[in-house]
Amino acid sequence: MAKILKIYPDNPQENLIAEVVKTLNNGGIIIYPSDTVYALGCNIFDIRAMEKLAQIKKIKLEKAQFSIICNDLSHLSSFTRAIDTPAFRFLKSKIPGPYTFILEANKSLPLAYKGNKTVGIRVPDHPIPQLIVEKLGHPIASTSIKDDDEVIEYSTDPELIAEKYDHLVDIVIDSGYGDNVASTIVDLTSGEPEIIRQGKGEI
């Protein structure tokens, strides 16, 4: 059964964040809030956790397009090729925020991403995922929680999310109602911003 942790975004409890980090280090799967929708996350360097994340999404890991959640741009060089100055300035102007940026991947990607030519990078404007990544010491892999309802598309109530994913994840962070609009996806592989999906963020 998933453990529900009520963590307040305006003053996240350090002991609960530490529990989340310990769970991630032990290969656990978490559900966490962001500045857009609730999302599933795991340790990006734990291949078994990554496989479990793919199973929850009912896709093969090699087909997965899991975003990489960072707390700032310091991890970019670990996962992406060099970015030209205009693109980097654009990134800086939008981060943190409700955007996922598609960038050219380098050869140092974690095992689960090997062979990917591009990678999605996200820095949510939300203290909880930022603090989790900071305390963990590296980014997490992430994918949005979809709803079975075609009209709603994204689940917003953490209690209902916890019911649905009770036997699939280890921790559900309840931080109040989430949004139901996902991030805007921006492709920067050509150097010029190209909107792939219009979501919450305006360009």
Structural class: alpha/beta
Question: Approximately how much beta-strand content do the residues carry?
Answer: 15-25%
Strand order of the largest sheet: 1-8-2-3-7-4-6-5-9-10
Shape by Cα distribution: globular
How confident is the prediction overall: mean pLDDT? 93
Total helices: the number is 6
N-end to C-end Cα span = 40 Å
Helix/strand order, N-terminal first? EHEEHEHHEEHEHEEE
Helix content: 25-40%
Rg calculated over all Cα atoms:
16 Å
Number of strands: 10
**Low-confidence regions:** none
Reported for the largest beta sheet, the result is: 10 strands, mixed
3D architecture notes:
The protein is of the alpha/beta class. It contains six helices and ten strands; from the N terminus they run E-H-E-E-H-E-H-H-E-E-H-E-H-E-E-E. Helix 1 (14-25) crosses helix 5. The N and C termini lie far apart (40 Å).
Write the layout of secondary structure elements.
Elements: E1 3-6, H1 14-25, E2 30-32, E3 39-43, H2 47-56, E4 67-69, H3 76-79, H4 85-94, E5 99-104, E6 118-122, H5 127-136, E7 140-144, H6 158-164, E8 171-174, E9 184-187, E10 194-197
Parallel strand pairs: 1-8, 2-8, 4-6, 5-9
Antiparallel strand pairs: 2-3, 3-7, 4-7, 5-6, 9-10
Helix pairs in contact: 1-5
